[in-house]
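Encode chain A's predicted structure.
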Amino acid sequence: MRPPCVLLLEAAGPESGAIAATAAASGYQVHAVTDLATHATYSADLQQVLSGCLLTDFSQPEMALKDIVGYARRIGADAVATTNEYLTELLAQACAALDLPGNDPGRAAAARNKADMAEAFARHGVTAPRTRIIDDADELLRRCAAGQITFPSVIKPADGAGSAGVTVVTDPGRAADAWRAAGAPRGMYGMPRDPRVLVQDYANGTEYSVESLTHHGRTTHLCATRKTLTPGAHRVEVGHSLPAALPPGAERPVQQEVERAIAAVGIRNGASHTEVIVTDDGRCTVIEIGARLGAGHIGVLLQHALGIDPWAALLDTALGRPADLTPARHEHATVRFLTSPRAGRLVAVIGLPQAGPGVPSVRLRTAVGETVGQAQANRGRLGHLIVTGPDAATVERQAERLLSQITIVVTPGTPAQTTLDRPPQPSRDPGRDVKRAP
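Encoded structure for chain A:
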């Protein structure tokens, strides 16, 4: 019997690389789909894992779907999966066309597009912030002047990700700036953008995410993750800690609200990452949901704290098999992200700890000498450290102690704008297969 053949929609990035490595270590044949520019960034190690790769153009969704389905049939794919936020709708469509386990293709857009998501939440009775969908800046200013928008409000793009373009607005005089910020993110792969902007009521409380896996419509909640956010207009996630304890009596009501959100966006087979705000008395508001595993090293934290292998679980679910989600340990893990104190040039990072027992991962992703700025989205983070241990109090104290010993040195002032010259791109060959060299 041949080993399973798995097709990944994108293999670049920490989560995608982890699922590719896990599949290869399990003896599976692994293929990937990407575009020409991203394929050029694949490391030699990643390319060694892959049995083949399809180059397509994700900015042309109908053509990309045709390419993916054709390639999957040629290689005899037993599963198609992704950890990439931008490709979850395409994944649902591909799985439906191939009759493989996946999500509802008719609802999949609502797990990616926040305007569609707000409408789906309203139809299915999900408790969520009041949302106005705005088509142009003049409409936003008219509504502010008429008192139709209360403050604080959250203004964000319909199809953003990673907190890019999201602004907490406390003063109507800042609404126009927030509108412009919502239109600035460019997304990935040159995909068509939705120009609409959302204005949502601000929800007070503590922010968590709930990490879940659904198999044939039955959902298992792995844990809640407590988020640490920057204050101010741009709420960048600078920490994730799990498993998080919810307020007394809140766990089941929160899970029930999350299950309504999962059903609203048609998640039937795969991971989900649901961001919620929970008040001290246990009231839950769903902010948004993604049809994917949580990013920001949440998968790694699950492994360290609970002994659950999320990559193997995702592969089992994509193959139509029940996943082993029983915790093998009951510990705690947190990640803390480093951010720049100001705009300028990164001169040094002093006091960064060494990886070792209790600190399994330390990484600086921004090189000394590079231009940096104050983080306004998750992409602006400079690096991270992960701390693990037997209980939440011990781990959180250790993480804060290590952070207090780190000094980030940045030359002051706003860096001059630069233009990056790109080499000419070869013309695209639709549906081009790239085979790994023997």
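The chain is about 25% helix and 25% strand.
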